[in-house]
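In practice, a research group might receive sequence data for several interacting partners and want a quick structural hypothesis before committing to experiments. The following worked case mirrors that situation: the sequences arrive first, and a predicted assembly follows.
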Amino acid sequence: AQSVTQLDSQVPVFEEAPVELRCNYSSSVSVYLFWYVQYPNQGLQLLLKYLSGSTLVESINGFEAEFNKSQTSFHLRKPSVHISDTAEYFCAVSDHAGNQFYFGTGTSLTVIP
Amino acid sequence: GAVVSQHPSWVICKSGTSVKIECRSLDFQATTMFWYRQFPKQSLMLMATSNEGSKATYEQGVEKDKFLINHASLTLSTLTVTSAHPEDSSFYICSARTQGPYEQYFGPGTRLTVT
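A structural hypothesis for the assembly, expressed as tokens:
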């Protein structure tokens, strides 16, 4: 089985400052990794994913995450945040069969003007 | 592409009644659909996994007689909350996946309030 840990439940950051949201996972098998974003009263939207290949993956809105197998981490970063980035962010892991996703408890990112 | 819809987006029902939530994949065929429940400020809790034409597989602790799941076609799955009680009030989210991409596409969620 897999599990995901998001150590930071809330992250306040000033606008245009950099941010890192941490995600660590545990698994006995190879995994796929995902970051989802959830805006209030909405479903989840895929932000980015790591399936294979380059360990650094990027989203279209400036976020990036790096898969670190030795540290079993998949931290999400953005060099300069905007007010519109305020949302809940969930890290998720699945096995290669994709039968089940395991979600972290989420990190609430609040961007302060 | 890969759009999943849910209906209704918001429903209020009286205690003791049943309510049905629909999850549709609009532009792809979903071999597997998942139902999640999310409490305020918490993560998603997987309730059940359903494959088209098969009985749903429920997670431990989820009452299958209370949360009826039907996946009758490759584009539609339904969750029926039977004899709803106030503690069933929650945000219910479905997701769908196809073979291959190993990615789940999420619906916008349905907020259920039982009075």
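Before designing any experiment, note the following. The longest strand of chain A covers residues 87-95. Chain A has no helices and twelve strands.
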